[in-house]
Amino acid sequence: KAAFARVAGVLHAEYRDKGLRAFNVDPGHIITEAQKARGSAAHLAAHFRSAPAEVPGAVIGWLASAPEADAYCGEIVRAQKVAKDLGLVPGWP
Predict the structure, then answer these.
(1) Which of 2, 22, 26, 42 is buried deepest, with most CB atoms within 10 A?
(2) Mean pLDDT of the region 38-54
């Protein structure tokens, strides 16, 4: 996992002049359907800053389409923070 976290930085350094945009997305704790089915979602949400899957999904969509996302090229993108800061998911948090 730790080595993979460097991939976006390396890709950005090697291929940015060819138009490649690379990001590492850290989704944070995501509430899953399995957690809901087991009844553990509320317990986990009480201990971790949790988000629905729509949050990292919205951030990935923004990264892929927004020119402003270039500021994050080669970086680790904290999906929950970016979604909150940009208001990408209406009604969340």
Answers:
(1) 22
(2) 82
Give the tens place of pLDDT for each residue, 63-75: 999 999 999 999 9
- Domain extent at residue 61: 4-86
Whole-structure pTM value: 0.86
Residue 91 lies in a domain: no
Domain membership flag for residue 15: yes
**How far is the C-alpha of 15 from the C-alpha of 43, rounded, in Å?**
43
Q: How many domains does the chain have?
A: 1
